[in-house]
Design goal:
11% of the residues lie in helices and 33% in strands. It has one domain (2-87): 2-Layer Sandwich (Heat Shock Protein 90). Strand 1 (2-8) and strand 2 form a beta hairpin. The protein is built from one helix and four strands. The longest helix has 11 residues, at 55-65. The chain has 97 residues and is mostly beta strands. A four-stranded antiparallel β-sheet has the order 1-2-4-3, with helices on one face.
């Protein structure tokens, strides 16, 4: 996981978090669906990976409730990178040169 400042002003800080895996990847047509509740992209009875399909839906709700956004980039058979931003309310701005 990487955490970097995305926006840094005298009064407002937004951080961007990046999480990358080298898994099976996600087809572009399925990007929005992975954030829906109880959705498994591979819903076949012989699927290799388990889960309830709640994790990313809950993360999306949490991020949006805190004023952030979430998205992904992926390539089938190569992996996926998830990004999300969150405002760092009350955090002092950090200025680097």
């Amino acid at each position: 996981m990487r955490v970097l400042p995305e926006q840094d002003t005298a009064t407002h800080v937004v951080v961007r978090c990046t999480i990358t895996d080298t898994g099976i990847g996600i087809a572009r047509v399925d990007y929005a669906r992975v954030f829906e509740r109880f959705v498994q992209i591979d819903s076949s009875s012989s699927r290799q990976y388990s889960g309830t399909g709640l994790g990313l839906a809950l993360v999306k709700e949490f991020v949006e409730l805190h004023g952030g956004r979430i998205w992904l980039e992926s390539r089938p058979q190569e992996g996926t990178t998830f990004y999300f931003t969150l405002p760092a309310a009350g955090a002092p701005a950090v200025h680097t040169q």
